Amino acid sequence: MEVVASLYEEPEHDVAALEWPALELIDVFKLFRSGPVETVALRGLDLRIERGEIVAVLGRSGSGKSTFLHLAAGLDTASAGEVRAFGQPLGQLDERELASYRARTVALVLQSDNLWPDLTARENVVVALRLAHQSNVARRADNALAMFGLDRRADHRVTALSGGEQQRVAIAAAAAREAPLVLADEPTGELDARNEEIVLDALGRLRAECGSTIVTVTHARRVAEAADRIVHVTDGRAFSGRV
Length: 243
Ligand code: ADP
Ligand code: MG
Prior knowledge:
This protein is of the alpha/beta class. The protein has a single domain (4-240), classed as Rossmann fold, CATH 3.40.50. Helices cover 38% and strands 26% of the residues.
C-alpha cells in the first residue's frame, strides 16, 4: 500500500506526485441493474479536478451526482472507464487498500448522519483520527475543534448540537486528518442561510489550512458562488462552467 500512503504523506522529493490532479474520471460509466431494470447513472463522464480546487457540482435530481461522488470516494466501482485519485487508478486497489484510501485520503461530508450520534463532538473527531491510524489524536482533535469554533462544544453529544455545528464537526474531523480530498454531498441541504454560511466558511478554511481539494454537490447558489469552478452533471456526463 505504498501508493496511497505515499500520496498521503506527500514526500517533498516526489515532484511528479505533486503534479497529479486530485481526481480524474475518464469515460466513466456506471450501470445499476435490479432485476430486468437497468439504469445508466453515468454515461461517459470525463472530469479532471486539480489539487486544492473547490468545485461545486450542480445538476438535477437523478443526474448522477451522488454516484460520481461514491465512485470518487471508493465506495463503489465504475462499470467501465477509470477513476484516478492523485494519479492512482482506484480500480487497481484491493479491498484493504481501498479501505485505507477511504479512511486516510477521503473525507465524506453528507447532508446529515455524518457523525456517531452517541458520541461527543471530540469523540467523533477522535474516532475519525483513529480510523485513519493517526498519532497525537487528542491534540489534533482539540486543535481542529478549536479551528472551527467548537472548543466549547467539544464535550457535548452531537445530537445536542445544531445542524450547522454538526456539519462543522464533520468538517473538523476532515481537518484533523488533513484529508487531501473532501467530498461533500449537499452539506448545507438541511441548513438555514446562517448555518449555510458557517459551513461554507468552514470548507474555505479547510482548504486554506490543509490544502484539501473540495468537491461539493449543492443546490445552494451561495455554495456554488464560493467555488472556484462549477461542474454541471447532466444525464451522467459532466460539463465545466463558470461560477
Ligand atoms: P443525483 O445524486 O444526481 O440525484 P444519483 O447519482 O443518486 O443522482 O442517481 C443517478 C441515477 O442512478 C438515478 O436514476 C438513480 O435512481 C440511479 N441509482 C443511483 N443509485 C442506485 C442504486 N444503488 N441502484 C439502482 N439505481 C441507482
Ligand atoms: Mg444525490
